[in-house]
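user: can you give me the structure for this one chain? tokens are fine.
assistant: on it. calling the predictor now.
[tool input]
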Amino acid sequence: MSSHPIESLLRPPVELWSMLVAFAAGTVAVLAPWALMMPPGVAYATAAVLFSMGLIRGRQAWRVLRYQRNMRRLPTYTLSSKRIPLSRRKLFLGRGFRWSQKHTQRLRDTLRPEAERYVQPGALYQWARRKEVAWELMPILGLLARLLRKRAWWNPLAPLPAVGGKSALHAVEPHEQDVWMDIGERVGHTLVLGTTRVGKTRLAEILIAQDIRRGDVVIVFDPKGDADLLRRVYAEARRAGRAGDFYMFHLGFPKVSARYNAIGNFSRITEVATRIANQLPNEGNSAAFKEFAWRFVNIIARALVALRRRPDYQLIRRYINDIEPLFMEYARYYLDQHGAEDWQAQVDDLASNIKERNLPMALRGRSVEAIALMRHVQAQDLYDPVLDGLISAFKYDKTYFDKIVSSVGPLMEKLTTGNIAELISPDYLNEDDPRPIFEWMDVIRRKGIVYVGLDALSDTTVASAVGNSMFADLVSVAGQIYKHGVSGEASDTPPVISLHADEFNELIGDEFIPLLNKAGGAGFQVTAYTQTWSDVEARLGNRAKAGQVAGNFNSMIMLRVKELATAEMLTEQLPKVEVFTLMSVSGVDDSSDPGSGVDFKSRNEDRISVSEVPMLTPAELITLPKGQAFALLEGGQLWKIRMPLPAADIDMPKNLTEIASEMERTYITNDHWYRVQESWWASVGDIVEPPNIETEDFETENVETENVETEDFEIKRKPDSASG
């Protein structure tokens, strides 16, 4: 480094002349000492000094030449996935350097007009680019045009890599190093911002590959359903020997996807209604309808759980459209437990005396037996909150009921139509369906890897609803880990759960916020990727809430962005630095004294001025090349990084079919934990008072080898199994 206040690297490499003179004089001293009038001994010593000085000046010239070359084109940085560095304590981000005042000074120097020739490609390069277009369709010159386009070592006029941007942003520091982020900082969550097609997915691949090899629980949310990202995640799982723990949930490919019940697992019964109602609009008059929808979904969910039936979208939709069968089933069950022994005869007697013309308008068209059950329950001195809710819903006029829950109807229709219904409302008792059913707690226990493709391009509403339900489920799981640990012991050290949310502005909602600010203690570390921060604000509809989300990301990686406000999220956190400016001053004045021997005086001087400027401006973030980023890490340290370009990996699956066939072979087919209703009931038994059901009657549902009479039970349960 130069000790002068002004470091001038964008200038002619004048050190070459002194290097050539020193080498020439040293050569003369060795070959013809008499020409310098020196004895041989003195000449040889002088030659050694001259050669040493020539090497020093040559090294200085090489530094200037290399700096100027990098200004025009950086060397290509490629890395195959298997060669990505791995550390148990650090996270590899790429190659780069710590940004300081020196780099701001050098970047400012590139803006001077006299430095343009050292920053921009030369005239010969520009000629080659023009000719490769002009000669493209010509018979003979077309071959020359193809040679000019060829990026090879023998082509000095090869085009620059198609990364765009301003290469000077990284060339201001020729000495790179591997950039690592401390693993302990990841629990504070990481935000990755960058416009479309600038390298967010490549960065995600690098981070995911390390998380998989480190043995973390890895969950990848991909609203688009990027096939390349899916293939990369599976290839890394297979390379790490974890293919058997890989699950693919993809709404775009339901026939090869794993299955997941988005509302079947919860810590509190009210979570079921909340997950569904949160997908509804809540502005203006819609807020009241949202509350009504929440209430009726909660009534249905409580009744299903009390009947030991796992809620799913199919069942919720069925009973929202017609709550009468659920009311009748629960009323019969309740009277079996708490009613008189002859309650059925009393109900039959009431039903025989009911006349349609004597019924209120709200009950006309209803089942006579259902009305009799309602009147019998109301006549008894019994109270059950679940039954009370069902009766209140049953008594509503059907037309009025349809109006107040009309907001939830279209959503449930979308979630339960076509093949997607089988994915998010799985039939747990269907032995003929080989697709596995996964739950988050089981994935965490097994340290699994889950890829979630939501196919948002096809249906944004369904993708958002499923994604937010998954986030809500994860928050519930985080609460269980906080209280009871993964294995039931609160003192257990929670596993590291690396959650990567690509395009997370498509997913973010009220469910995502507690995952950021409360789930860190349960082992969750979130890496979120999006284009602009305005996308998040628009999604949340509240600037203050968006600021609350932004405040939960301790680390930020920003690639090229095109929105000024997004760029300022990084630049406004940086201090201002002092830069030096060299100013040339010239002046001439004449003498008015005729007797003086001086006719005029002139002066030439260089002045160094100091000004305070931002360390980084939004304009510089907007001109970042693809695959390069600024990272604010570990308490505000600014790093400039560039990510490696992907090299060809021979073990990458070629398509989705290959992944599906390999997963089918690696799935553990004897893992029937999700079919055990008793274990599920044990997990929610503290939510609703367990009904007093004979154990033998319940267990016959899952016993296939014993000859147990199950006819009565199956008649009651089959319609629900078929619907779910």
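assistant: here you go. Confidence is low (pLDDT under 50) at residues 668-677, 686-724. The first strand starts at residue 78 and ends at 79.
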